[in-house]
Write a structure and sequence with these properties.
Blueprint: H1 3-23, H2 33-59, H3 64-88, H4 95-117, H5 126-145, E1 151-152, E2 158-159, H6 161-220
Antiparallel strand pairs: 1-2
């Protein structure tokens, strides 16, 4: 197993660790240790998403296993995080938010699977990549908001952890819906062009077959015996 795939497996193995940290009561919450450790694990796991892809391209180690596991690991990490946050901080992440996030991932995966079966690909859009960044920020902010509503800064200023988490969640939901529509539009435009091209090719083939089928009838209408006069000149 090469290095990029090993990093991908580390991201997959970090998922049950993250779920355990957010769900267990055996991890101390004193001074926010539980929230800080869970946030660190999630951030490190998210960073490995860019590292394994970069190393695979740089080292020329792009494999079928890596192509399969990398997007699967991303979706498992995000889905497990939001499902766990429904229990960990339901005030900020109600169940319907997790349904939208996971449903969007299933939709994009399904569209890419159909596209692959039709012989074309749907590239990751910049909107989808930006949505992934917002998802990471929202998960970390929600985890920290479980312990702190705000962080005191210099003087009378403070860092509004709760409101950043709330804003990031709603912004993420909007981006998820918009990016899902964007992926569907890209899929529909490509599949529509392929259907039109396929129908045009079938029409041309049917015309050619029709011309071939009618050629003997046209020759026989001249009253010439093609079998007896193969040259057609007599």
């Amino acid at each position: 197993m090469n290095l990029p795939n090993s990093i991908t497996f580390i991201r997959i193995f970090s998922i049950p660790l993250l779920i355990w940290m957010l769900s267990t009561r055996h991890l101390s919450s004193a001074y926010g240790a539980k929230e800080l450790l869970a946030s660190a694990v999630f951030i490190c796991a998210s960073i490995t998403d860019g590292i394994d892809g970069y190393l695979a391209r740089k080292r020329g180690q792009i494999t079928t296993m890596g192509i399969l596991l990398d997007p699967l690991a991303d979706k498992m990490l995000i889905a497990s995080a939001y499902v766990t946050l429904v229990q960990f901080n339901p005030a900020l992440v109600p169940a319907w938010v997790a349904v939208i996030v996971i449903g969007r991932e299933f939709l994009v995966s399904g569209l890419r699977g159909i596209a692959a079966s039709e012989g074309f690909t749907i590239e990751a859009s910049d909107l989808g990549k930006f949505k992934m960044v917002v998802q990471i920020v929202s998960v970390v902010a929600v985890i920290l908001a479980h312990r702190w509503k705000e962080w005191p800064l210099l003087g009378a200023y403070f860092f509004p952890v709760y409101w950043i988490a709330w804003t990031a969640i709603w912004f993420m939901v909007c981006l998820s819906l918009i990016s899902a529509v964007d992926y569907f539009a890209a899929f529909w435009s490509k599949i529509d062009r392929r259907v039109v091209r396929r129908r045009r090719r079938a029409f041309i083939l049917s015309r050619r077959k029709g011309n071939v089928a009618t050629t003997p009838q046209l020759n026989n209408s001249t009253g010439l015996d093609i079998a007896a006069h193969p040259s057609g000149s007599e």
